[in-house]
Design goal:
The chain is of the alpha/beta class and about 90 residues long. The protein has one domain. It is built from three helices and five strands. A five-stranded mixed sheet has the order 2-1-3-4-5, sandwiched between helices. A hairpin with a 2-residue loop joins strand 3 and strand 4. The longest helix has 11 residues. It is globular, with a radius of gyration of 13 Å.
Length: about 90
Amino acid sequence: MSLKITVDEDLPRQAVQLLQEHGYDAASVIEQGMGGWKDSQLWIAVQKDERYLVTLIKDLVIFVHIHQGHIMVFCFYALMKTAFDRCWNY
């Protein structure tokens, strides 16, 4: 069973492709019919589907997930963003 990830619309489609190439069950909010949703609505849907949410706030790439009532947040600063930049800017 692969990790299920929803990629917010502030990250490019190539981020989804990169995650899929590495075996993750990744889909964009657009693909899931949630483009333009308010953050609160998106978060409820992502939790219901037991997915991680990947979003970008300024220069932070943030992975958020709730598991058994515990919130897990992983933040990656410019190094992770730079890796994504290389993927979508060639």
